[in-house]
């Protein structure tokens, strides 16, 4: 092979491959974002990868769709499945709520990445 891809940081397998912005190990299934500076350990906590319910990597500014109906405290009706949420922001939220967003008709709130899929 002409590419010099890094070995898997979990199992040290040399059979890694690129999938979009991620590196993938076919032996152990580990996925990671390659370090831009070359060799070195993890860059820090800011390199955390947040995925939606079907495994797509999310980033700031993405548009997502809610995949199941959600109850909202203080509201007679909740958020319906299929609701589009634009311009999300990824945060280190409380209790697994890692998406900060504004939903039309409800206002600002936080969602879990496990209840959305990338649109």
UniProtKB/TrEMBL annotation:
Residues 50-119 form the Protein YjdM C-terminal domain. InterPro entries: YjdM, YjdM_C, YjdM_N. Residues 5-32 form the Protein YjdM N-terminal domain. Pfam families: YjdM, Zn_Ribbon_YjdM. SUPFAM superfamilies: Prokaryotic SH3-related domain, Zinc beta-ribbon. PANTHER family: PROTEIN YJDM (PTHR30305:SF3), PROTEIN YJDM-RELATED (PTHR30305). Belongs to the YjdM family. This is Alkylphosphonate utilization protein. It comes from Streptomyces kaniharaensis.
């Amino acid at each position: 092979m002409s590419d010099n891809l890094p070995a898997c940081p979990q199992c040290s397998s040399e059979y890694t491959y690129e999938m979009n912005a991620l590196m993938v190990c076919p032996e152990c299934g580990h996925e990671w974002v390659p370090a831009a500076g070359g060799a070195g350990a993890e860059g820090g906590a800011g390199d955390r990868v947040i995925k939606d319910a079907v495994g797509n990597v999310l980033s700031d500014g993405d548009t997502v769709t809610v995949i199941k109906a959600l109850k909202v405290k203080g509201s007679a009706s909740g958020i319906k499945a299929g609701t589009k949420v634009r311009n999300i922001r990824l945060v280190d939220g409380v209790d697994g709520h890692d998406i900060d967003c504004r939903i039309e008709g409800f206002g600002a709130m936080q969602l879990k990445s496990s209840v959305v899929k990338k649109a």
